Amino acid sequence: MKKPQLNPLQAQLLKSGLTNETKVKQVKAEKRKQDKLQRNNGVEIVDEVKLSAEQARQQQIERDRELNRQRKLAEEQKALVAQIKQITLLNRIAQEADGLLYQFNHQNKVKTVYVGDKVREALINGRAGIIGLESGYEIVPAEVARKIQDRDPHAVIVLNQVTQDVAVEDDPYADFQIPDDLMW
Fold first, then answer.
1. Are 140 and 129 in contact (CB under 8 A)?
2. Which residues constitute the domain of residue 24?
């Protein structure tokens, strides 16, 4: 009986004891059958191992894409927060510890900042706004607050609508004196 012709890989596997001659013959016979079926019938034999490997590779590519997208979103969010912080700190209006009390609502809680009289009027009239940072609250001009609001609407805590001074002739209460010590 003649020995089957072995390719180098099969020879190595036989030599190392990982396979035996009967398994080599079975593999060759199966390969011949598949080739014959494919030639005669035009039937393509589907290799399930290759198919499952390709599916696994496609799933891995999709997972990688999703992870990259999430990583990119996180980096963009970090950059946006840093940008808002930088804009706020460069344009902030100083608060005064012994100034007037200005109270506002943030997350259903009343918060307080102490500001000068002109800054308080600016906050009330919409010419200034309050920005929430992780370190606290900062007061900035209204233009800056609008720029920040374009980037992140949740960063702006207080930005009142700009009020127009009522013309003296249209003011029905022009004849009444307003007390100087009146605080709302």
1. yes
2. 8-41
Under DSSP, the state recorded for 46 is: P
DSSP state of 95: P
How far is the C-alpha of 108 from the C-alpha of 110, rounded, in Å? 7
Q: Is the pTM of this model over 0.70?
A: no
Angle between helices 8-16 and 21-41 (to 10 degrees): 150
Domain count for the chain: 2
Q: What is the pLDDT of residue 166?
A: 47
Paired tokens of 110:
């009343």
> Which of the 8 DSSP states describes residue 83?
H
10 CB neighbour count, 10 Å cutoff: 17
Both 97 and 66 in a single domain?
yes
CA 106 to chain CA centroid, Å, is 24
Per the listing, tokens 């804009």 go with 87
Q: What is the pLDDT of residue 62?
A: 96
Q: What angle do CA 48, 49, 50 make, to 5 degrees?
A: 90
